[in-house]
Design goal:
The structure holds three protein chains of three kinds. Chain A contains ten helices and ten strands. Chain A is an alpha/beta fold. Chain A has a single domain, classed as Rossmann fold (3-Layer(aba) Sandwich), CATH 3.40.50. In chain A, helix 3 crosses helix 4, helix 3 packs parallel to helix 6 and helix 6 packs parallel to helix 7. The two termini of chain A are 29 Å apart. By secondary structure, chain B is mainly alpha-helical. A two-stranded antiparallel sheet of chain B has the order 1-2. In chain B, a hairpin with a 4-residue loop joins strand 1 and strand 2. The radius of gyration of chain B is 25 Å and the shape is globular. By secondary structure, chain C is mostly helical. Chain C folds into two domains: 37 residues; 234 residues, MetI-like (MetI-like fold), CATH 1.10.3720. A two-stranded antiparallel ribbon of chain C has the order 1-2. In chain C, helix 1 crosses helix 11, helix 4 packs across helix 6 and helix 8 runs antiparallel to helix 11. The radius of gyration of chain C is 23 Å and the shape is globular. The mean pLDDT of chain C is 86. Classes of the chains: A alpha/beta, B mainly alpha, C mainly alpha. Chains in contact: A-B, A-C, B-C. At the B-C interface, helix 1, helix 3, helix 4, helix 5 and helix 8 of B face helix 1, helix 3, helix 4, helix 5 and helix 6 of C.
Chain lengths: 253, 296, 279
């Protein structure tokens, strides 16, 4: 983890029609850290992730205020290539969604869309991504079988490998282990710890203990606002805000 | 692959996407354009003569003798109406019965047998139905009830059979769209299956069923080949169920191949009348379906 | 009317409903058995591969098969791209505004127009005004417009049934809309789209009123797009109506029914196989 700020969010608000899902967000994401985002349901955590990779743009009636700078550039600027931006911030969703294709084709999918066609390059990318995602050993002999045949935990690691194949800088995860068994959860958390060396990870989780295990810094969202953010140890032992303390102790949630 | 991308690359992709969108919009308008073109042509070719001879006399005149420039469509309009009404008399009870049996009273196994049968019914060409009518139904009517056999009755029966798949499939959809809680609630209150159907399901699925009937009506009015074969095609107002009859569609189809000049234009005009009737029916059916979709 | 007790009413209703249903099924089975029993004996390799001779009294029906295939193929070649393109636009590129409603209204209206009107229209525009004459071209174009609404509807349903999550995944991996449509949505929707096309093929087989006025009824083997030709159903109609040859008529009808049966079975098979593959 470094102190180098990779993402700078200033006074950011997100609207869908008349509904405001995020208000006045000021947040920094440091390079090569794992930032955990915790908070009760409907706090805007997932909305925030989707604002980072501009997936919110696809929703009709979406509007935003404020700025988000990634690597110094405003991602909502006039000459931003949204497609490249989305490759730069890979996203893993709560429910694993393997495409109805083979494992190989799932991982190669993003790379193909980015224009990689050489068989050799693709094979290298697939192997590399599956290794980084912690799935290579389990599937290396059956790359041609359907991705739908994997177990839940394996599918989620497949989704992780899939985004790694497009060489992102950031990995966004939206409650990635919420439906998984403890062993799969542990495998994914291990992968994240390994990956933060080369990537910056933002992990949205409704499991506060997961944040405590894995995150370097933690941010607490409540009703679309950032309550506080800081080093995980501090947030969990001596938070500044009473609401953070209440949530962590389970007084509401 | 990293980085937020150059301005040029981004614009190219956006431009491509916009081009694709425009191209698809043009393609999507094909259906509308075809409809427009059809309307323009049919109406364009058919209306002049209607006004030349007077709209009223054209629609209500009872004599159709093209060789003597008499173009009265009334017998054919009545013919279409009678035959359609007859088709509904047969199609509605049988169709709704099948729909109800399919959704409420049959096991999965039985359903798996009956459903393909209904779909097959929908696929049989109209000329085959007409043929069966000529070979079997018409002689039967002639022998049992008298008359030429080629009659309103024959046409009604054949058309009734032909619109069954339409009524059945749309009614089945509507019945299946009724939430299971309606059924469960009714049974829980002690109603029998049939009472549930009669008092809960039919009202709930009403607009869908009505839409299916209207669409069936449209199909019956628009049917040509089968009616030509069994209806007798006499251009006079049918006096009874057993009298021969000519429908608007048959009128067009029978004389098209040899009609010239004003005769031909009169046939186009028949097409216009048919077209208007169908459009009105379709709009009503769409409106009822739209209401159905809005139902909870 | 004396009011029946609910139990009795239930029994009466059930009996009545089942009676009506069984009569319906019986009618269909009767039609099929009747035609096939008289038509199958007429079928032979010769029947299928020889051309009609002597107005159809002798020989086979080969030229009519060719005519039918030619018309259907031409119609599909025109209607499929237009229909699938329209469906893609309606589901992926609009949100249901007034434009969508106009397009949908157009397609629904087109679906309700009877075949004789299409025949009339085809006759006016293609045969007469554009001077194509009675030809495969006129018939194919007319048939294409008739199949368009069905293809639009079935393609739309197929595309709509692709899980939204697939699109999200595709976008989040960095793809343009068109890439998502062609590489994720369409491949998954393809079975449904193909089924819809096969279904409309079935419709075109039985189509008589429209083809007789646009493609004509020439018995000769068609030699070009501008040849007039007779489809099987038209041939059947003429044979039956003019009383030329009852056995040949039954044979032709049998082929028609077998073809429809075959297409229905193919549709089921396609749908089942692809549902298994993708779920």
């Amino acid at each position: 983890m470094t102190n180098d700020v990779a993402i700078e969010v200033r006074a950011f608000s997100q609207y869908f029609g008349e509904v405001r899902k995020i208000r006045g967000l000021d947040l920094d994401v440091h390079r090569n850290e794992i930032l955990g985002i915790i908070g009760p349901a409907r706090s805007g955590k997932s909305t925030f992730l989707c604002a980072l990779n501009r997936l919110n743009d696809l929703v009709r009636g979406s509007r935003r205020e404020g700025t988000i700078r990634i690597d110094g550039r405003d991602i909502y600027g006039p000459d931003v290539d949204v497609v490249a931006l989305r490759r730069k911030l890979g996203m893993v969703f709560a429910t694993p969604v393997p495409l109805p294709r083979s494992i190989y084709e799932n991982v190669a999918f993003g790379a193909r869309m980015a224009g990689v066609h050489s068989r050799d390059r693709l094979e290298g990318i697939v192997r590399d991504s599956l290794e980084k995602g912690g799935l290579w050993d389990e599937v290396k002999d059956r790359l041609d079988t359907s991705g739908l045949k994997l177990s839940g935990g394996q599918q989620q690691r497949l989704c992780l490998a899939r985004i790694l194949a497009v060489a992102p800088e950031f990995i966004l995860l939206d409650e990635p282990t919420s439906g998984l068994d403890p062993i799969s959860t542990m495998k994914i958390e291990d992968s994240l710890r390994r990956l933060k060396k080369d990537y910056t990870v933002i992990l949205v989780t409704n499991n506060t203990k997961q944040a405590a295990r894995v995150a370097d810094r933690t941010a607490f969202f409540l009703s679309g606002e950032l309550v506080e953010a800081g080093p995980t140890a501090k947030i969990f032992t001596a938070p500044d805000d009473q609401r953070t303390d209440d949530y962590l102790r389970g007084r509401f949630g | 692959m990293a980085g937020t991308g150059s301005k040029r690359a981004g614009n190219r992709l956006e431009r491509n996407d916009r081009l694709v969108r425009l191209a698809l919009l043009v393609v999507a308008f094909s259906a509308v354009s075809v409809l427009l073109v059809i309307t323009v042509f049919i109406v364009g070719q058919g209306t002049p003569i209607m006004f030349k001879y007077g709209l009223k006399s054209f629609l209500t005149g009872t004599s159709w003798y093209p060789s003597e420039k008499l173009f009265g469509l009334w017998p054919m309009i009545v013919g279409s109406l009678f035959v359609t009404a007859g088709a509904l008399v047969i199609g509605i009870p049988f169709g709704l019965a099948c729909a109800v049996v399919l959704t409420e009273f049959s096991s999965k196994r039985v359903r798996r047998f009956i459903k393909p049968v209904i779909e097959l019914l929908a696929g049989i060409p109209s000329v085959v139905y007409g043929f069966m009518g000529v070979i079997i139904l018409v002689p039967f009517i002639r022998e049992t009830f008298g008359g030429p056999g080629l009659s309103v009755l024959a046409a009604s029966i054949i058309l009734g059979i032909m619109i069954l798949p339409t009524i059945i499939s749309i009614s089945v959809d509507s019945l299946q769209a009724v939430p299971p809680s309606y059924r469960e609630g009714s049974i829980a209150l002690g109603a029998t299956r049939w009472q549930t159907v009669k008092m809960v399901l039919f009202p709930a699925a009403r607009s869908g069923i009505i839409a299916s009937i209207i669409l069936g009506m449209g199909r019956a009015i628009g049917e040509t080949m089968a009616t030509i074969m069994v209806a007798g095609n006499a251009a006079q107002v049918p006096g009874s169920l057993l009298a021969p009859v000519r429908t608007l569609t048959s009128n067009v189809a029978l004389e098209m191949s040899y009609a010239t000049g004003e005769h031909r234009e009169a046939l186009f005009a028949t097409g216009v009348v048919l077209f208007v009737i169908i459009m009105v029916l379709n709009t009503i059916a769409n409106a009822t379906s739209a209401r159905r979709r809005k139902q909870p | 009317m004396k009011r029946l007790g609910p139990r009795l009413e239930e029994k009466a209703a059930r009996t009545g409903l089942w009676a009506l249903t069984l009569i319906t099924v019986a009618v269909l089975v009767f039609i099929i058995v009747f035609i096939l029993s008289r038509g199958l004996p007429v079928l032979s390799l010769e029947f299928l591969t020889k051309n009609p001779v002597d107005m159809g009294k002798a020989g086979g029906i080969f030229s009519t098969i060719v005519g039918m295939v030619a018309l259907s193929v031409l119609a599909i070649l025109i209607a499929a791209p237009l229909g699938v393109g329209t469906a893609i636009y309606l589901t992926e590129y609009t949100w249901g505004g007034p434009l969508t409603r106009i397009i949908r209204f157009g397609a629904e209206c087109l679906a309700g127009i009877p075949s004789i009107i299409f025949g009339l229209f085809g006759f006016i525009l293609f045969v007469t005004k554009l001077k194509f004459g009675w030809s495969i071209l006129s018939g194919g174009l007319t048939l294409a417009f008739m199949l368009l609404p069905t293809i639009i509807r079935t393609s739309e349903e197929a595309i709509k049934s692709v899980p939204p999550a697939y699109r999200l995944v595709s976008f989040s991996l960095g793809s343009t809309k068109w890439q998502t449509v062609t590489r994720v949505v369409l491949p998954s929707a393809l079975p449904g789209i193909v089924t819809g096309i096969v279904l409309s093929l079935g419709r075109s087989i039985g189509e008589t009123a429209a083809t007789i006025f646009t493609a004509g009824s020439a018995l000769r083997m068609p030699t070009s797009l501008f040849s007039s030709t007779r489809t099987m159903s038209v041939h059947f109609y003429i044979l039956a109506r003019e009383g030329i040859s009852m056995p040949k008529a039954y044979g032709t009808a049998a082929i028609l029914i077998i073809a429809i049966l075959g297409i229905n079975i193919l549709t089921y098979y396609l749908m089942n196989r692809f549902i298994k593959k993708y779920s």
